[in-house]
Amino acid sequence: MCDIAKIHRGVVSLALTAAGMASLAFGSYWLFEANTSAGLAGLGAGLVLLFGATIDQFEMLKGLGVEAKTRIDQKVNEAEKILAQMKSLAASTASSLIEFHVAESNQPTGGGVQYRVASAYDKVQRTKEMMAATGSSQDAMRTAMTPWLVNTAHALYGHLATPIHAALRIRCVELKNAAGSKESIEARINSINDFLHGDRKTLREQTFSDLTLLIEGLSNAPELDEKSRVNVAKLVKVSLSELAYLNEELAFKNRYYWENLPQLTVELDS
Is 150 found in the same domain as 108? Predict the structure, then answer.
């Protein structure tokens, strides 16, 4: 039993030391990046964890027998509680940081959607690494990164849908002024309006799955000529593959794709 207790204390001490060093490293990094709140949180967590890791050594030096071992076990339990609290703090801090990065990336900069998506990516990935280093679970990381996932999918949908929507709005105006069967023209206009306004959810209400379905539906846009429909279908297929990987791995599959989103040009049936 004594050997098991020593092994247990040793493992806990190593775990606390590793987590403490990681927290200090990330805290120093965030301070260097001028992110004071994250930096101080990381440094504070690191110091607490390293202190917890040394408690066992101080107690053993006292040589007080059973009483000392009891106190060691108490300190180990306290350190484990602190470690759990630090994980919770890291997850909470990471969620706030990711929401901030998302909001920041949505500010108008003139760089286009590619710039917005790419600028948020590295910051979010560093936050994800911080969570992993402090022991956050995969579920906690996914929860924290969900706003970024939704925002990235929304940016992609907007980029792909904009030229299609613009062309269809022009076609609506043309149809309203066109001669011909009233019933046929109204049917075409209704088809276009259904496509343009079929989903009335706001961004706040949309989920990652909602946006994936919207992107998939671009292949079914009305009025497109055959060449444009083929091009849209190809681009949608690639985009859905990238989104599936993003959702699974919480990272880009092909960074070049995201930094150089292809421009979609469409033509309508004559």
Answer: no
